[in-house]
Amino acid sequence: MNSDRVDEIAALRAQKKLDREAEVEAREANEAEEAKSHAANMARIAKKMASIEAGNNTVVEEPAAAEEPAAKLKAAPKKKKAPAKKPAAKAKGKSKGRSKGSKNRK
Q: The whole model's pTM is what?
């Protein structure tokens, strides 16, 4: 093998090793961020459950019927669709040869 080729292969292997290490670090950072977010959500849920257990439920749910008129107000009126235009007839070019009703025969 050519010594330049061996050097290129060694450099490529070293670069791949660095890339793998960077991927591992990025993955670990992402997992740590997700774990932190999950812990915050679980703390929020635990706090809410404790509040419900204590009977301090201040959240009042509205009946489903009350949401229906609001949904109707938000719906935008439908626009009428314009009728589709028919494509214009193609202009006919001159026909080659004589026409069917032509009397100029030889």
A: 0.40
